Amino acid sequence: MLKRFISYYKPHKLIFTLDMLAALVVSLVGIVYPVVTRSMLNDLIPNRNYRMVVICGLALLGLYLIRMLLNYFIQYYGHVMGVRMQAQMRSDMFRHLEKLPYSFYDSHETGKIMSRMTTDLWEISELAHHGPENLLISGITIIISFVYLININVPLTLIIFACIPFLILVAVLLRKKMRNAFMESRKSTAVINASLESSISGIRVTKAFDNAKKEEEKFEEGNKQFVFARRDAYKAMGRFHSMTSFITDIFNVVVLIAGGFFLYNGKIQLGDYSAFIVSVNLFIAPVMTLINFMEQYQNGVTGFERFIEIMDEEPEKDAEGAVDVDNVEGHIELKKVVYGYDTSKDVLKGIDLDIEKGKKFALVGPSGGGKTTICHLIPHFYDIESGDILIDGKSISGMTRSSLRRNIGIVQQDIYLFNASIKDNILYGRLDATDEEVIEAAKRANIHDYIMTLEDGYDTQIGERGVRLSGGQKQRLSIARVFLKNPPILILDEATSALDNTTEILIQQALDELCVGRTTLVVAHRLSTIKNADEIAVVADGTIIEQGTHDELLKLDGEYSKLYNLQFKENLK
What we know:
The longest helix is centred in the middle third of the chain and has 53 residues, at 212-264. α4 runs antiparallel to α6 (110-152). A six-stranded mixed sheet has the order 6-7-8-3-9-10. It has a four-stranded antiparallel sheet with strand order 2-1-4-5, covered by helices on one side. It is 64% helix and 10% strand. The chain has helices at 2-6, 13-30, 32-44, 50-99, 102-107, 110-152, 154-161, 164-201, 203-208, 212-264, 270-311, 371-377, 401-406, 422-427, 435-444, 448-453, 471-485, 501-515, 550-556, 559-572; strands spanning 332-339, 348-355, 360-364, 386-391, 394-395, 408-411, 489-493, 519-523, 535-540, 543-548. The chain is built from 20 helices and ten strands. The protein is of the alpha/beta class.
């Protein structure tokens, strides 16, 4: 893990080197004050050399001015380096998230992912900046102070440094508990972010059902979990700091008693004793810095561990030897396909389908039967357990996912529109399309006339998830994307489900036009929309129980006939 962390320093070698050099000079300047103090007490002041006293004072002031400028450099450029490393990690995580399969997002909440990309990475950047500086400055200062103190009085110095093992022992014993506590704190922060993201996204549903109190209860549950986790983290941190601070306080007591005893017995001069008291604080300060650094270290390490957890998730990978496919004709075959979202239950149980190129094939049946799962498997969103899926006689496992999906257009029941302009949302179908092609796609989706009534036309911002559009308008906009993409294979998963009858007729006409010459797989709840399909399959409990044309299935007087008659009666009411 350390090697992976260090790799993010590589693009910033110059700033890092200068930052460390500045930190080195700052630590060296820190030792000057006690050295000058000792010289004044033992030599300059007793000998009344006031000229050198003034010169030393001015020199010290000049060094402090240099240290001020170096501290500015460290604070500014050090933080800039940390932010750049944070940005690189965020970019790496985002690119990795884009490569992760559907199954990852089935089990990870958006709010928790966002927490790892914001809070955790901020803590990492703070560690990246302050960590090396603290270690370098404190380490050098401790070494120099040891050499300087031992030069003043060896026995007194050895007594002081004898306290160090106790400090290390306490740090080792309490470090693991503090680390675990901060990891739990990170998880609780992710939970509260996930709850907040869910509640805000669903605010309209909350208002519609007047369930604000319920959402408050859910949020407060996560909030309490956060408080408890932070409480445990702070308890561990409190133990750590109180114990280590107590040991460092002992330093001063030891210096006072032992130094006084040595002074009384004439084993140390008054000037050396005074300088030792000043200098021992020079030793205690970096020790305290390292102690305080442990909290930042724990925050950064736990954050980086959670970052690594995401980065180690297995991305979608094309099979070895997979090839790009072009000029797809659209003949789709499913051969004894078995699939389950988890190992405990199969959603599809040996599905066999043969959809000829250019044909419209419809899937109907009860919810949960496996219709949408079939739609997800053809673009290779999930890996099947057994069987095979072929396009134009070639297994999709031997095709690159990118090229396969370029040849498939999907309109899903759950529409997602980006918080951008109408034009940008349509362009998502084909990013290099011209304005004329965008307009043509909108016309074919029967939404162009509406767009032209808007003040900003195609540049109109539609808000988060298309909140400023009606359900039908959002659906037509998503259909326009597919018109623009113009793929040889279409998958329409309840594509007209959000439309009223009048709008549905308009869209259906456009879809019928688009389907000409293309292989189309339609999942429909309204059977009236797929009466003219070339073939219809009834899917229930992961198997195909009936298959044929509309008329053939009605003559069977089976499940399809029951569904059709039930909807026909409802329409008569």
